[in-house]
Amino acid sequence: SRTEHSSSDHQFEQNQQNSGDYSQLGRLCIRFLNYNHLLHGKSHKKEADLVSCAAKMGLLGFVVYGTPGIVGLLVCYGSNDAKKRNGSYGVRTMECDVAEFAKECGRIGKR
Hints:
Elements: H1 2-18, E1 27-35, H2 45-56, E2 61-64, E3 69-77, H3 95-108
Antiparallel strand pairs: 1-3, 2-3
């Protein structure tokens, strides 16, 4: 009957929404920050503080040590409430977090 068809269409739409429609999550990008040098090792306190700061802020990314040194941070774009919904694929970092991290790195002495 027609009613059953409408009901099954509605259920199909709900299942699609619950089973991996990521179009509302935003997109993931990598934001690169470069530094004159980033050196690895126990004796390099500023670099250790930089990594510790990123961990405390809950940032996800990577560090390429050397001259120049590069920090890559995963950023979620295009979702106004990414933090509430756990971001895109678990990434909750927004552009404002990157700016705050860069400021903290400046305070640490890494510019």
